[in-house]
Amino acid sequence: MHIPDSAEIREKRIELGLTQSEIAEKSGLSQSMIARIESGTVDPRVSTIKKIVDVLNHEEISIITAGDMMHCPVISVLADETLAKTVSIMENFGISQIPVIENGVAIGCISESAIINAMDEGRIQKIQSHIVEDFMEDGFPTIPKSTSMDTIIHLLHNHHAILVSEKGKVVGVITKHDLIGMITK
């Protein structure tokens, strides 16, 4: 575990656009204690440094938005696309679900699970004779580009992906894989 020195704490606070008073309020410490730590005139306990680092880490995550995380273009299909072509797209891109988008607006999704369930129930004999609409499920949540990381994390607890929109049109996608990838950077 890296314990930041006074200069690193000050640099990170300034980088995040926070005042000493804001750090103090959020950490439960006094503003004068934050000032003394940053100036190096006091040797704080590890527990005190941890409070400050926790606030800085939380604030850093809070400034990341959906627009920062999303990737594009969004791989999608139309509702009238054949199931055979859709499965081929999923295989080519190594994905297990794909949004169904019409005129830039998400109307549902199709997943491997939905296809397998339909096969199990005997609703699919020949994949070539079906279209996506026959097995389409409810779509992924759609959020604006300005949505915070906290909201994204919450939504990804219950969904495999989130679509990002701008002016009513889907412009990006965020997956659980993208979120996990952030901690490896």
From TrEMBL:
Species of origin: Methanomicrobium antiquum
GO annotation, biological process: methionine biosynthetic process
Signal peptide: none
Protein name: CBS domain-containing protein
Gene Ontology molecular-function annotations: DNA binding
Annotated CDD domains: HTH_XRE
Keyword Amino-acid biosynthesis applies: yes
Keyword RNA-binding tagged: no
Domain of life: Archaea
